[in-house]
Structures are given as C-alpha cells and as structure tokens.
Amino acid sequence: MTVLDPKLFLVSIFNAAVAAADPERTIRDHLPAKPKGRTIVIGAGKGSAQMAAAFEKVWDAPIEGLVVTRYGYGATCERIEIIEAAHPVPDAAGLEASRRLLAKVQGLTADDLVVALISGGGSALLPSPAGSLTLADEIAVNEALLASGAPIAAMNTIRKHLSTIKGGRLAAAAWPARVVSLIVSDIPGDNPAMVASGPTVPDTGSRADALASISAYGMKLPASVMAHINSPAADAPSPDDERFLRNEVHLIASAGVSLEAAAAEAKRQGVEAVILSDAIEGEAREVGGVHAAIAREVATRNRPFSRPVLILSGGETTVTLRAKGKGGRNSEFLLAFAIGINGVDGINALAADTDGIDGSEDNAGAFADASTVSRMRAAGVDAKAMLAGNNAWTAFNAVDDLFVPGPTGTNVNDLRAILIR
Questions:
Q1: Which of 3, 76, 131, 316 has most Cβ atoms within 10 angstroms of its Cβ?
Q2: Helix (H) or strand (E) holding 397
Q3: pTM beyond 0.90, yes or no
C-alpha cells in the first residue's frame, strides 16, 4: 500500500465518484432521436445547469429551454435559460420557475420533443402549490419533512400530492409532445419517479401512502395541507395515463455507478475496496455507529475484510432534528462515526454529499480519524454534546476537518469512504 496522505487519498476517491457522474459524458450516451418539430429543454435540480450546458455541447440542432438550479449552482448556457432558486427550503424564485416551466411546455404538438434534465434537489426548487395552497404552505411542509427523519421516498410521495408540477404533471402538461427524461439519481434504489419528486415521471404512490407517512413520522402539517391531501384533488396522474405512453426515461448516473468508479480508483492506487451498499438509509447517527463498528472490527481483528481496505457506501441517511445546531446528514453521520472509532488507530474517513453541499452550509461533509474526538476536546468541543444538539458542522469546523469542494455539477447522493490501513 502506497497511500502517503489519507486525506488526499480520500479526496481522490470522492473525485473519481463525481467524475463518473459527469453530465457531458453521460448525456452524450443517452441522446434522443431528433424530432420533426421543436426541441424544448426543461430541467430542475442541483445538477441541472451543468446538465443543460453539457446538452448544448452535444446537441447539434436547434434547441430552446429553461432549467432551475440552486443558488450558486449555475452554468453558462447560450440557448437554455438558467434560473436559480432556494434549496432546501423553497422560495418565490422557485415558484416563478415552476410557473415558467409549465408555460414553456404549453401548446406543443406530437412532432415536438421535450428533453427533461432532472437531478436531486428538484423537489425544493419546484414549489407549485396545488388548489388553494400557498408558497407558505409548501415551505411549512418542506421544513416539516426535513425535520421528520422520513426517508426521501416518503418525503417525495407527500410532496407530489401537494403540487401542480410534481408526480408526472410537468410531462402531462407537455402532451402530446414526446418527453425524454435524462435523470441523475440521488435516490436509494434509483427509482426515477422519486428523483425531484418526479416532475416528468409518474409513479404508483398514492394519497393513502402519503397520509400513512405523515402519520408514521408524526408530521405536523398545516390544516390547509391536510385538507388538500385528504381530497381527490390531490391524486397524481397514473403511470398508465395515455399522456405518458410515448415518453422515455433514462437513468444516466447513479450512486452505484459512482461507487464502482471510486472502488476502481482505490484499486488503481493499490488499495482493495469493498462496497457495502449504494442504498443505505436510516438515521445518520445510527448508520454512523454501525459503520464505526465495522471499521473497528477490521482495524482490531482484520475481519470481515483484510487490511488495508477501503470501505465504501452510498445512499441517503436522514436526520431527525432534536435541536437547532448547524450541520447536515453527512457531518452528523461522521461525528457519530468519529465517536465510535475514538482512539482506534489506522482509520481515516470521509463522508460527503456528491453535489458538494451537505445540508445548508458550504461544506460537502467532513473528515474523521482516531484523533478527531480528542482534538475536538482540546478545542473546547464536546463531541457527544455536539451530536446531541445536531451541531456536527460546529464540531468539525473547530478542528478544521470540514470538506469544502464547492458545487460539483452533479448529485448521486452521499459517498462514505473509510480507509483502514
């Protein structure tokens, strides 16, 4: 094993995972046939601007379009307009973007083509409250979802029953044009209808499913929201609706593909790699504790994997907010992990969101090793107290172990890389 600097090694693993989801390469491999009529590009998500720029490069015919991405995640396009809006809590800019996207696909014909560039984050970027609901209602719902600890699939099933654009409704609005969706998945299990709450891809999730999740996770939603979701007006289009029959859906990047690329990079550098799963869900601190137990077992007993080894996993954990600290699911995962490996030498870890942002701060995640907890203590920070207060960002910031790569232009969810030397 020739790893000289564990942090640099882990960053190279992250970079390999992100490169495997590079929009230009993946879009080039999934270009639709050119239509007789117009080509309209629409999109939403934290990687949608980079996807739009990539599409412009490889599409050698006239196009026009509009996509929405998170503030600071824009890209330079000549023919596709980029709008920026708020994430993870919606704002008025996102509301206007939703209105304009729906308007963009009005009046099309069967000879026209709509290309939808969809990536994670689109749920918050596309507020479009149904019925008598308001943007304030949608913001309240989003805040309740983020604090609930519910898995992303449950969140998005609820969201699509409160919207005029999610749950396939954007594609339905484009009918009779053909809609081809190019999707970068940030969803455990890679169900394309769950990415960004499926604006162009319907699924079978029902109002009953949404209500069951609201109850199961104890969500307190506004009375107006509950009234709407209890009414037939909230029903989303069915996948067998004739408006979707000519459409195509292509998954062009996913956590699984990126984890394979990360493993290949590790092996190129002389370190064997194992992938636990690309679809791990659950409470971030609990998942962190389990990963720590596996790392300790390898470090102290050389099982179930032989040292040196890189343990990889992906998916999307959740955080049930117990306090109003600063952090995200990756930093919370890693703080629990750091507590679990405290004092066990030979372990270095990185947990980060592949879009470059973990939660609402400027970091993608953080680094941890056997000395993390003791270094925090020396800096006047109690790791366990920080974890109890959902304050992982503050804890890692105190020891200068935040990972801040900036926006990456893609989003295939979380990457957890644990090097055991």
A1: 316
A2: helix 392-398
A3: no
